[in-house]
Amino acid sequence: MNTIINLFEIARWMIAIPLLIISLYFTLTNFRFLLENFRLGLNAGPAPMTIVGGLAGCLGLLILPYMEFADRLAFIWVPLILDLGSLPFYISLLVLTLSRVLGMRLFKNHRDYQAGRNT
C-alpha cells in the first residue's frame, strides 16, 4: 500500500513539474513580448495563446504534492497574476472595452445634446 502512495506522489510530481515549466515559459514569453513592444513602440498584445501560462501554473500548483491542498489553494492566484497574458490581460481588455463602449455612448449623448442645444 505504501508503494502505491509513493507511485501516486511520483506521478503527481511528473505531471506538476512540466505544467509549472510551461507556465514559467509562457510567463517569461509574455513579459519578453511586453518589453519588445515597449522597445519598438508597437501597440501589440501578449502572445497569441494568452491564458495558457496562467492555467498551466494553476493546474501545476493544484497537482503538486508538496503542500497541503488548502495551502496550495491560497497560492492558486499567483500564476494568473504573474502571467501578463492571463488575468492582467483580460482585466485590461475588459476595462478597455467598457471604456470604449461607455465613451462612445457618452460621446454620442454629448453630441446629441450639443446638436439639440445649438438648434
What is the structure about, briefly put?
The chain has helices at 2-40, 52-63, 69-74, 78-82, 87-118. 79% of the residues lie in helices and 0% in strands.
Question: How does the SSE layout of this entry go?
Answer:
Layout: H1 2-40, H2 52-63, H3 69-74, H4 78-82, H5 87-118
Explain the overall architecture.
The protein is an all-alpha fold and 119 residues long. It has one domain. It has 5 helices and no strands. It has helices at 2-40, 52-63, 69-74, 78-82, 87-118. Helix 1 (2-40) packs antiparallel against helix 2. The longest helix has 39 residues, at 2-40. The model has no long low-confidence stretch (mean pLDDT 79).
Q: How many helices does DSSP assign? A: 5
**Looking at the chains present, what oligomeric state does this protein adopt?**
single chain
Secondary structure: helix percent? over 70%
Query: Per DSSP, what share of the residues sits in E-state strands of 2 or more residues?
Result: under 5%
Please write the string of helix (H) and strand (E) elements. HHHHH
Unreliable stretches (pLDDT < 50, length at least 5) are: none
Tally of DSSP β-strands: 0
Class derived from helix and strand content:
mainly alpha
How would you describe the shape? elongated
Mean pLDDT: 79
Tell me about the largest β-sheet. Answer: none
How many angstroms separate the termini? Answer: 87 Å
Instruction: Compute the number of structural domains.
Output: 1
Cα Rg = 22 Å
